[in-house]
Amino acid sequence: MKGQEWYQAEQVASEYESKRFSGGGRLIDRREKEAVLSALAPIEDRKVLEIACGTGRFTVMLAEEGADIVGLDISAAMLQEARSKARAKGVDDHLEFLRGDAARLPFPDDHFDTVFAMRFFHLADTPASFLAEMARVSKDQVFFDTFNRFSTRSIYNWMLPMGSRLYDDDEVERLLKGAGLQLARADHDFVLPFGLYRQLPDNVADVFRRFDTGLGDTPAGDPLSSVSYWDARVQ
């Protein structure tokens, strides 16, 4: 897994959200949370596993919505941040955080209603094995996002410290088939790169987002989108 040691550093964990989801990055945070809430609804009493939960952005949100949720991550530092967030939101007794390896999930088959992962597959060195494990422990739904090969991200991907694994639609469809999953829905978004939004103040980011959304609604929008959200069902 790319960046495994980097994500386990205490300084990286403590600064993770402030660096990525402040200023114009708040817009990204809102959109990703909207994607998760929409895909997983109805959420109350749903048994959910989040892979690579990091600082608990989604885990805590879903606990607040009434999910029975477990967040798993390999980074103890990230999980410490997640537990602090859960306590601050008053949901620390409504969820569970575990340190573990996504390649060897410590759960029996068909244990969860939904298994999902955000900001994970761009770092995966063996995506087929990770997706197969997610499908194994889910009895219904698997949800995840990818960064896309034919997008603005491909222009600057080589400049990123760890790079990203970029996917095209055919590769994702092969991965789904290999894991015994059936695609239910795919949403494509962010023609403009994430990195641009993070450099902008909130009000300026909103202007760019309106342009981005308009471009996304054109025939060129889906092929050029930098992010895709994949909602699949166990066959």
Your description of this structure?
With 235 residues, this protein is an alpha/beta fold. It has one domain (4-234): Vaccinia Virus protein VP39 (Rossmann fold, 3-Layer(aba) Sandwich), CATH 3.40.50.150. The chain is built from 11 helices and 8 strands. It has helices spanning 4-7, 10-20, 25-40, 57-64, 76-89, 127-137, 153-156, 169-178, 194-198, 202-216, 221-224; strands spanning 47-51, 68-73, 95-99, 112-117, 138-148, 166-167, 181-189, 227-234. Helix 4 (57-64) runs parallel beside helix 5 (76-89). It is globular. The two termini are 27 Å apart. The model has no long low-confidence stretch (mean pLDDT 90).
What structural keywords apply?
alpha/beta, single chain, 8 strands, Rossmann fold, 235 residues, 22% strand, eight-stranded mixed sheet
Layout of helices and strands:
Elements: H1 4-7, H2 10-20, H3 25-40, E1 47-51, H4 57-64, E2 68-73, H5 76-89, E3 95-99, E4 112-117, H6 127-137, E5 138-148, H7 153-156, E6 166-167, H8 169-178, E7 181-189, H9 194-198, H10 202-216, H11 221-224, E8 227-234
Parallel strand pairs: 1-2, 1-4, 2-3, 4-5, 5-6
Antiparallel strand pairs: 5-8, 7-8
Helix pairs in contact: 4-5
